[in-house]
TrEMBL record:
Protein name: tRNA pseudouridine synthase
InterPro entries: PsdUridine_synth_cat_dom_sf (IPR020103), PsdUridine_synth_TruA (IPR001406), PsdUridine_synth_TruA_a/b_dom (IPR020097), PsdUridine_synth_TruA_C (IPR020095)
GO BP term, pick one: tRNA processing
Record field: catalytic activity: uridine(38/39/40) in tRNA = pseudouridine(38/39/40) in tRNA
Gene3D superfamilies xrefs: Pseudouridine synthase I, catalytic domain, C-terminal subdomain (3.30.70.660)
Lineage: Eukaryota, Viridiplantae, Streptophyta, Embryophyta, Tracheophyta
EC primary class: isomerase
Amino acid sequence: MGSGLINILHNCILKLKLISIIWFAYPALLNVNIMFYMKYWGITYNICCFQVAHFTTPFSYSCLSSIHSAMNGLLPPEIRVREISAARPEFHARSSTKSKVYRYKIYNEAIMDPFHNHYAYHSAYKLNPHAMQEAANYFVGIHDFTSFANAAHNDGERRPTKKITRFDVTEMGAVLQLEVEGTGFLYRQVRNMVALLLQVGKEALPPDIVPAIIAARDRKELAKVALSAPPHGLYLMSVNYDEEILKPPEGSPPISFGRTHHLSKCKLTLY
């Protein structure tokens, strides 16, 4: 998720004078008074994000819909808060996550559909989805993904061992959809895994190249055969939590899913 989206949402909350700190699920609190979490989505740098954030406030609320409406009124149209709820004291948008789901879309025809421009990667080479699925299966499990991680500016204590629970390659007409779920991902790990699968799909590399690159634990080994896939086409689909941790505390205000506006029942003609 781009830092621009984070700053926009953070500044919006500061304008409402609700808090002085906000935490997001994707970038890596002291629990003060009342804590809320919210689900939101937005598009930044051609990446569609579905995110979760939490913040603390010293104020008490009996209704969250007014905050919800105020936030969406201040945010630009490409960013929207979908849901706001009171959160348990132990909830943390980042450390409480169970898994994340990423999707990468590839438009696989000779001529790019203009409506998919900026939202899918264009491959004019006819890809072999069966070979790509065979290669993707090698990613599933617990592995050291050092070979698939770029160095991040704030990655001081990187833990390269991650668990991938599924990696699906699905044909949807001209669109080839790659969807991966895992407990966590390193910086640009998904784009680098996709890059290798693209080479396998072009039949430039065999599917069993994946375990060899994983075993090398060296980013340079991947760079010899594949460049990082571009950011357009990448979507953060969901950040998942255990249901128990998302249950609001006793006595909390109702969850806000947004307010539906109705036309006035007044029949007087307006001049």
